[in-house]
Specification:
alpha+beta, 9-stranded mixed sheet, 3-stranded antiparallel sheet, 23 helices, 43% helix, 19% strand
Length: 555
């Protein structure tokens, strides 16, 4: 009977011990509770509520807030969060109030303080950061945002509240309302250091400068200049002027800048130097210039990989245009115009927009007939009723070559003028690392199994707070992955991959899957609980910090 009672208390801990252990290592609950002092009447502190939300999110079960207690019914809450805490304590009202408290405390500053402490920003001496943005679409109405549509500014002294509204959708859903998220990550890592929710109609060209300056206000006292890597939205005269003397930057120059087109057409490929072993298929040429009154280094880059990819894209664009022209000509041939000039104007309108084709033949013919119905008189002559146009077209070699000439080329700019401290190859690699530093973080945010993939909240304040909780989840996930890979490299160890082959660079998603099936059950000899696991799971735990090992009972 006693054994059956114990079995009824069995809980699943799986990989959540890793998440909770890393949270303890970075003092997640302690730091948040220091910034948001616990209210005596509440049984759950803000830090504990955030940890519960992170455990829920990294459970990858896609549960909204109101289902959080149901999620924790099968989890050892006392072991993962705090002894004495139960799943009933983690209800939607407790978690909702915690989100409100986070917003009142200042979201971005709180996250920066937590992330800086977690990664040891001052000890790392990191000076390279990556900045980018994404958008999150939402369904339904947001009356508070609608009521503030015509307001121009928030009340001074009050934490800003985003507007859920229409804007440029990076999810390709312009029909839905959205909000924008700006994020800063460490170099060669997807570890976030700054997250900031913004209005749905925010434009990168204006927000990037404000985000960087807000970040700098919170990290005053840096000994070395910080260098930010961002996409071409950073490169405007106003932005680089505002940031001049405050930071160094590396960004891509938009092709709309006239000098870019001129250089790419005038500088021969023979003038480009090979990138070497670290940049296979890359050639580059460096020039000095001034834009917006700021002296800069421009690196003209040719990528063979990009060239091949863009050639295929161009080929598809030529095919699409051909099909569109064929459809337009069929419709045009069925149209009767009142005069020949109208027919030719319609023809010119079609080919005036064509980029890769040109007309090879154009024939305007008269459409004749009798005005009156019935059988015409013997001497009656047909009259002109209108005009039809027909013709053919062919590829435009000059237009295609003109487009093809620029393929594979792009320009990187920086106000870092010391080519010895930052050589051109390193600058190119720095810019290209944008795809492996910040973009994986956005994919993590939008994972369909992440609990906040669909924002069920209707309060803009809580949505903003939830984006920070998601950032904390990404922080813990990334730190756990970094710690495991670093330990495996140091010890020359490995874990089995999906094909059961040894790997020293596993993803945490795969590690989480390997940790499935670990149960927790209280025992008489160990009131904190007993855990049973496979040998491979014990091996994985052995590579983590003492905080993680303590939860699983692995020496």
């Amino acid at each position: 009977m006693e054994e059956n009672g114990l079995l009824s208390q069995v809980r699943r801990i799986d990989h959540l011990g890793i998440v909770s252990g890393v949270a303890r290592k970075i003092r997640l609950v302690e730091i948040i509770d220091r910034m948001i002092p616990p209210a005596p009447q509440r049984g759950v502190t803000a830090g504990e509520a955030v940890l519960a939300l992170v455990l829920n999110g990294l459970g990858f079960v896609s549960r909204p807030l109101y289902l959080t207690p149901a999620y924790f019914e099968t989890k050892p809450v006392g072991t993962l969060i705090r002894s004495g805490l139960t799943e009933e304590d983690l209800n939607e009202f407790t978690l909702g109030r915690a989100l409100d408290d986070l917003h009142e405390a200042g979201l971005s500053a709180l996250f920066l303080h937590l992330a800086s402490s977690a990664v040891g920003l001052s000890e790392r001496g990191t000076t390279f950061f990556h900045l980018d943005s994404t958008s999150f679409t939402l369904s339904g109405r947001y009356p508070q945002s609608e009521a503030r549509e015509d307001e121009e500014a928030e009340d001074e002294g009050e934490p800003a509240v985003i507007r859920i509204t229409h804007g440029f959708s990076k999810d390709h859903r312009p029909d839905l309302k959205q909000f924008v998220l700006n994020m800063i990550t460490l170099h060669k890592s997807r570890i976030p250091i700054w997250v900031e929710a913004l209005d749905g109609n925010t434009v990168d060209k204006t927000s990037f400068s404000r985000t960087i300056q807000s970040f700098l206000q919170q990290v005053q006292g840096a000994e070395t200049p910080m260098l930010f890597v961002a996409d071409s939205a950073l490169y405007t005269k106003k932005t680089i002027g505002e940031l001049s003397g405050k930071i160094q930057w590396v960004t891509r120059v938009p092709e709309t800048v006239g000098l870019v087109r001129h250089l790419l057409s005038e500088v021969p490929l023979e003038a480009f130097r090979p990138g070497g072993e670290d940049l296979p298929g890359i050639r580059f040429c460096e020039v000095g210039t001034t834009f917006g009154g700021i002296p800069q280094r421009w690196i003209l880059v040719y990528s063979q990989t990009s060239r091949e990819r863009e050639e295929k894209t161009l080929s598809r664009a030529v095919s699409r245009e051909k099909k569109a022209l064929e459809a337009s000509l069929r419709a045009l041939s069925q149209t009767v115009f009142s005069c020949s000039e109208d027919a030719r104007t319609a023809w010119e309108e079609i080919f005036g927009k064509a980029r890769y084709h040109r007309a090879s033949e154009c024939v305007v013919s008269e459409e004749t007939g009798h005005v009156r119905s019935g059988r015409p008189k013997k001497d009656a002559k047909p009259e002109i009723q209108g005009y039809r146009i027909s013709g053919s077209f062919e590829p435009d070699p000059e237009g295609i070559d003109r487009e093809l000439h620029r393929k594979g080329f792009f320009v990187i700019a920086s106000n870092h003028l010391d080519d010895k401290a930052l050589p051109a190859p390193e600058m190119i690699a720095l810019y290209k690392s944008q795809g492996t530093s910040i973009e994986p973080g956005f994919r993590f945010y939008k994972d369909p199994l992440f609990f906040a993939d669909a924002f069920f909240l209707k309060s803009e304040k809580r949505i903003m707070a939830l984006t920070v909780v998601m950032g904390i989840a990404l922080l813990i996930y990334s730190l756990a992955e970094e710690e495991l890979r670093r330990t495996l490299k140091t010890l020359k160890g490995s874990v089995p991959d999906q094909k059961k082959k040894p790997t020293s660079r596993p993803t945490m998603r795969w590690i989480f899957q390997l940790m499935e099936g670990i149960n927790w059950m209280p025992s008489r000899g160990d009131p904190a609980g007993a855990i049973w696991m496979k040998e491979v799971q014990k091996k994985i735990i052995s590579f983590f910090s003492p905080e993680v090992k303590a939860i699983y009972g692995v020496p």
